[in-house]
Amino acid sequence: MFKYARLFVTSLIAAILSFCNDLTPGEQDVENFQDLLEILRCPHCVSGDTRKPGSDPGRLELVRNGSWLVCLEPDCQRKYPIKEEIPVMLIDEGDKWADVAIEDLPETSKLI
Ligand SMILES: [Zn+2]
What we know:
Elements: H1 2-23, H2 27-37, H3 43-46, E1 60-63, E2 68-71, E3 79-83, E4 86-87, H4 91-97
Antiparallel strand pairs: 1-2, 2-3, 3-4
This protein binds zinc ion.
């Protein structure tokens, strides 16, 4: 009887642990965002007077383990944080981080 109870508790803990693992950001999120990259573009480089030439300007690259998006246009370098899995695609936000080196970007969870 106790033997089965112990087995039950052990498998319950294992189930909880694997559930928690699913919630932590990791490679799975990076994969999901790769799909997103196919449609997301830097708002500065696709709109109005600041639109860059070419058929598909403002492509973005994931950096910092998938927590930041960087515009690939050479003279742009705007960076957009991904906060709680939502990319903040605002030009003002990108402006803030344009001059910050990728390695100096803060953890997005610490941003307000
Ligand atoms: Zn851009």
